[in-house]
Design a protein that fits this description.
Bound molecules: heme C
Structural class: mainly alpha
Helix content: 55-70%
Strand content: under 5%
Number of helices: 6
Order of helices and strands: HHHHHH
Shape: elongated
CATH superfamily: Cytochrome c-like domain
CATH architecture: Orthogonal Bundle
CATH topology: Cytochrome Bc1 Complex, Chain D, domain 2
Length: 118
């Protein structure tokens, strides 16, 4: 909201021309921040089982004997959110650990990892 009260750019003509690219820029910066937040949360809450890159080789699996999750494949955002919120099989719900915004950020990061593995 504070953004709306920022002083207008000095070269207003130039600002107008660049308006859409500035908006795009802002959006990509926002998702970059979300991705960074997602990575932090993923490292804390998920990597112990799923591994840092999502291949299913976390420490708890390798050394702790926990059931091995499959590598992330062909998941969509909705499906990932569903598993984070309600759990699946031996994986418990993370609803009480991550709030809605955090679950969304982690889910996006999982999608990102999935892309990286392709
Ligand atoms: C205690 C270990 C453990 C933790 C922590 C954990 N998971 Fe899982 N996860 C599993 C296991 C095991 C499965 C496979 C469950 C099954 O299919 O029975 C799984 C399944 C999944 C799936 C479904 C994969 C598929 O192919 O259907 C997703 C998505 C997922 N986890 C995401 C996450 C995210 C995101 C986090 C962190 C918020 C997380 N998990 C934390 C062990 C864990």
């Amino acid at each position: 909201m504070d953004d709306m009260y920022q002083a207008p750019a000095i070269e207003s003509d130039k600002a107008e021309i660049n308006e859409s690219s500035v908006a795009l820029d802002k959006q990509s910066k926002m998702s970059e921040i979300d991705l960074q937040e997602g990575e932090k949360l993923y490292t804390i809450a998920c990597a112990s089982c799923h591994g840092a890159n999502g291949s299913g080789d976390g420490l708890v699996v390798e050394k702790g004997g926990h059931a091995r999750p499959n590598p992330y494949q062909n998941l969509n955002l909705e499906g990932i959110l569903e598993v984070i919120t309600n759990g699946k099989g031996v994986m418990g719900s993370h609803k009480s650990i991550l709030d809605e915004n955090e679950r969304w950020q982690v889910a996006n990061y999982v999608l990102h990892l999935q892309e990286q593995m392709k």
